[in-house]
């Protein structure tokens, strides 16, 4: 395969062909669905794909010409990307787009033509810093194209991502229902565990949370603690690892009554807000978020 000559611009044929794939030494013509032709080497395609290997292994009619185009059912942009990845070159291919729809389309086309090298290349790309800010996109690709180990790791990166945001709707819709179920089951189990640890921690440190020691003074009633629990549940629904509870002051409107409650004996605040925040963060530190298998 390495002895195939990739012609220079001076030896390429007419403008009917994509300028990057118009080599005179090529023996197959591929046609995109937007009318662009690609002259390519059958040996490269056959090496990259069993589908092409079997296709080119079949006897060709004597009436067929090497210039007869094979319709590929893909755009010229997608087709060029597939060829750029499977062709032997000294440099890595340059993707015209890193958008989720484009990469998903590239991988779908690669799957259709059994181009495992394309799947492998994009999978490696999804592990680079280019995707550090796009874990949900990488997770969706992993679920769709069989990267099970990657999906497991990426699911943990989604613990501080609010999946209820409308901004994520299109990507979530692209994920199969089984993978979505496993993801949300994992998030729900973590939320339940975190709430249990927080509740236990609050009960253990309750005496340090009160702002006074008056024996006959009033205490927060159940409605006040229920408001706190609802607040915690709401934040953990969005961010199961509690990242929002670590980063933002707890000035939620529903908690103002709890923070403003005063002892009817000494007029001190009943609940030490800072102490309660610290107790919750301490509880979060006790939870292991690193070993969470995706399972029904």
Automatic annotation (TrEMBL):
<dbReference type="InterPro" id="IPR011333">
    <property type="entry name" value="SKP1/BTB/POZ_sf"/>
</dbReference>
<dbReference type="InterPro" id="IPR000210">
    <property type="entry name" value="BTB/POZ_dom"/>
</dbReference>
<protein>
    <recommendedName>
        <fullName>BTB domain-containing protein</fullName>
    </recommendedName>
</protein>
<dbReference type="Pfam" id="PF00651">
    <property type="entry name" value="BTB"/>
</dbReference>
<feature type="domain" description="BTB">
    <location>
        <begin position="26"/>
        <end position="87"/>
    </location>
</feature>
